[in-house]
Amino acid sequence: MDTKIEAKAPSAPRGVHDMTQGKPRAHVVRVMLFILTGMMIQTLYGLVDIYWVGRLGKEAVAAVALSSNLMFVSLAATQMLSVGCVALVSQAAGRKEHGEVQRLFNQAQSLATWAGAVFLVLGLAFHRTYAERLSGDAVTAELAISFLRTFVPALALQFTMVGLGSALRGIGDMKPSLVAQTASVLLNMVLAPFLVFGWISGHPLGVQGASIATLIATAAAVAGLAVYLVRGKTFLRLRLADWQPDLSTWRKMLSIGLPSGAEFLLIAITMGVIYAVTRPFGAEAQAGVGIAARLMQACFMPAVAISFSAAAVVGQNYGSRAYARVRETAFESVKLVLGFMLFFTLLCQVFPAQLVGLFSPAPDVITAGVDYLQVVSWGFFASGIVFVSAGVFQGLGNTWPSLIASGLRALAFIVPALVLSARAGFSLRSLWLVSLGTTLGQFGLQQFLLRRELAIKAPASP
After folding, report:
1. Contact 97, 19 (CB under 8 A)
2. What is the pTM of this model?
3. CB 162 within 8 A of CB 81
4. With bands split at pLDDT 50, 70 and 90, how would you rate the model's confidence at 1?
5. How many CA atoms lie within 13 A of 202 on its CB side?
6. Per-residue confidence band for 6, with pLDDT thresholds at 50, 70 and 90
7. Is 337 helix (H, G, I), strand (E, B) or coil?
8. How far apart are CA 286 and CA 279, in angstroms?
9. Which of 92, 303, 443, 455 is most buried by its number of CB atoms within 10 A?
10. Is residue 103 within 8 Å of 252, Cβ to Cβ?
11. How many other β-carbons are positioned within 10 Å of the β-carbon of residue 73?
């Protein structure tokens, strides 16, 4: 049957990869490798900043860590766009409706432009308040304010980057985003030390130099993607005439993406609570937690890459009503993520001090980071499956169950964290134990909801 379908299927336009044929695992791995490479490159942005800024002292590290948490707010907003775009585009591609894919692509760019502009205005209006409320001391606050002045515009540009990349991911064309990200991170790595320490110019910019390097590199990546589209390497085209807001399309994108965006916002809120609770412990504790959080982000990259990959593969197969392939994609994705999470759990258990020590030589900073990593890493298995399952929900076009599990997890963490922090003798280790317990609870609830969703939308015996 599969052979006949493949023979009758119309040829796909340039850049479109049909993931309704062939082994689902092969498609997941192919897309995952592109996404993972891009995410590794993207994560280098943060690690490069921390590496160079770490030479400026613990207050500088804490400032960049606090500022970078705002990235989760940006991710929350861009996820709303990305998830909705990938779901609708991949499902349209699965139905072979390539004209609709083109229309959705341009609507996504329109929505991304407006959303980025709003984020820029709000970010610049409240960056000082954000820094002052969460910083452990006045020095850290001023450094964070300096960093955010140019980091906020860089985050605003991410909306355009996501708008361009999401539609390409929905049709399985991964190379353009990877090339753009690679070039931008290399540019960032070259610029950062020159701007931070004033090499050659003799005018060191400190922490703000790191954010300026990120802004320039991000702008270069957006320009590169625009050039790719203009040169016609894919059938997708930027058509300003199609940018007139279609509110019904926007509502569809946001209704699918809103829950996923809210999940990232919950992460930002949770990290904000962590920084607020660790404030009395000083800049060294915040710096240690900030470094450990960056390391955890690096550990979760494979899980997030598999999640994004599963969303595209599930979306195309769900659009073509290949329900058995939807289930197979989910199962193969979980098997892939478990191997990665085993490796990173062992790494954080055996070499935590060495990992944190790469970014700060201060003993107090290393102690705080090690304590955080060694406790929360026991939940990496559960977190990995949570990420992958969220991708399956995205491909199915219903992300609300995943948000329910994340929301209850955030509530179950934040309330005890605030209560415990107000008690005498409060230790950060008790906070990390609460985090671990709530992660396991989120995993159990989400798996129950996923099984229910698959039974409804992708039954085993249609």
Report:
1. no
2. 0.70
3. yes
4. very low
5. 0
6. very low
7. helix
8. 7
9. 303
10. no
11. 21
